Amino acid sequence: MKNRKKATIDNRTTVDAKHNTKIKYFKELKKSLPGKKKKLANLKEQYANLNKKSLREFTDEEFILKNNLEDSIDILEKEVIEIESGKEEKEYYQNTS
Question: Mean pLDDT, the chain, as a whole number?
Fold first, then answer.
């Protein structure tokens, strides 16, 4: 006869472990900033090159690309501003103190 008891797994984490995870997240976020800025610069350059062309000469694909670039630029700009301001990190410390 086999023992059919399942081992119980303890998924509890300490407050300190959760805090360390959050701190690691904020550090990774700050490390990603130069990459995001570089990507933003590339997108802006693509957008500027696309805008050199007259709108009348745009193909359907170029209109789609222009709209996608505008959306991507807006999203990245917001992310960069958010990271630079440290708003999320400040809110975390404010709420946990």
Answer: 91
